[in-house]
Amino acid sequence: MLIGKKGLLVGVFFVTCCYSVNLKLFLMSKIYTVIIALTSFLFLNSGFSQTIYISTSDGNYSNCLNWSPSCPPNLIPIGDSVIINHDIMLTADLKIAGSLTINSGKELSGNKSISVGLSGGIYNNGNLDIGQDLDNYGSFYNNGYAKFDKVINFGYICNTGTIEISPSKQFVNTGGTIDCGGELIVCKFVTQNNGGDIANVSNVNMCCNDGYDPNYLYLGGIVDSITVSFCGITLSGVNLPVVLWSFGLDIQEKSVLLNWVTKSELNNDYFVILRSDDGVNFEEIGELKGMGNSSITVDYQFIDDRPLMGTSYYKLQQVDFDGKTSFSEILRTNFVLNDGFSLYPNPTNSAINLLLSVDDATDIFIEIFDAQGKLVFVQNQVVLNRTNSVQLNTEFFNKGMYLCKVTFPNGSQMKQTFVKSE
């Protein structure tokens, strides 16, 4: 399993064992009860207008017939509360600065997203089945079942139930806290600090929906190896095969150099280098043998001597001797040949991209000639002081060889040939 970037994983896990988990959870529950009660008291006695919206029947969130005293807003303001006592379907994205409560046996669902502000809170005792993302800056207390496409947590999550994430998406804990002993069904988990906000992960069992350990990327924070487990086995009892210290790339004159460093390896068979032109669909471009078992720093390098023109993406797949695999983060680059002028894809079909890197914003004049020297395309274009991508329509060109010529205001020119395939 490939874990982490710029940080040693298991070696930096902080173990919290000064008091029992049960006592800790008991004290936390009392503190949160006092906080909620105090907050309610302050709102009721501070001049804020507080509205409590209570569902009266099943139906859409936006249907006023389903609510008392009136329709709740899609932006629940500070001090307001929405209480769901029925099965409610979201019809728009929901933003919470107040509170949302889903009672036992009831459900809030819909293919929408939920954002919880710093002052906001969700209290789920039933089912929360959301087809899109949860962005949590406040508090999320889950005592039931919750399902999201993806979660980004900047705040506090107390999960005593089950939270499930779509298998292809990530749970990203960015300076937030995850606690309270529940289940997290997730295949890709990232934890990292957020400036001065230290990420904390404790009292949670993570497992992918296929029954395998999640792909876990540690970029910072505190992880309690005694109370955090993968598929029922605590991290203190798991040998994590590969600790990835860094992964980067350098653009060379006509190639891209990938380099990565491991701090330790256990049962590491080999690395697969993967490349993509869209960041989604990756293809293998090479392999490098791993060290097997190592407790020292190991440097790896791989040269992509036929890089894609324009934007491309790279990632590593690490393979254990037992066939288990995991993936690194994805790196993005923009490759241009040193002459500053590239055409891709070449050969092309319906369109070709002219990739041009200039130091100052300027006008350029683009001409395309066929194999007989006939001018078939002309275009004036403004380019900025950076790498520019200009798409040229070649759909109606005949099959064959063409010459693309770029002329600058000072009279200098760049030329390159390409092939129209069909």
How would you portray this structure in words?
The protein is mainly β and 422 residues long. The chain folds into three domains: 2-237, no CATH class; 242-335, Sandwich (Immunoglobulin-like), CATH 2.60.40; 341-420, Sandwich (Immunoglobulin-like). The protein is 6% helix and 52% strand. It contains one helix and 43 strands. It has a ten-stranded mixed β-sheet with strand order 4-2-6-9-12-15-18-21-24-27, with no helix packed on it. It has a ten-stranded mixed β-sheet with strand order 3-7-10-13-16-19-22-25-28-29, with no helix packed on it. Strand 31 and strand 32 form a beta hairpin. It is globular and about 75 Å long. The two termini are 44 Å apart.
What is the approximate shape? globular
Helix share of residues?
under 10%
Secondary structure tally, helices: 1
Structural class: mainly beta
Strands ordered across the widest β-sheet: 4-2-6-9-12-15-18-21-24-27
For the sheet with most strands, the description reads: 10 strands, mixed
Distance linking N and C termini = 44 Å
- Rounded average pLDDT: 83
Give the low-confidence spans.
Answer: 4-37, 39-47
Total beta strands: 43
Radius of gyration: 27 Å
Supply the number of structural domains. 3
β content, as a range? over 45%
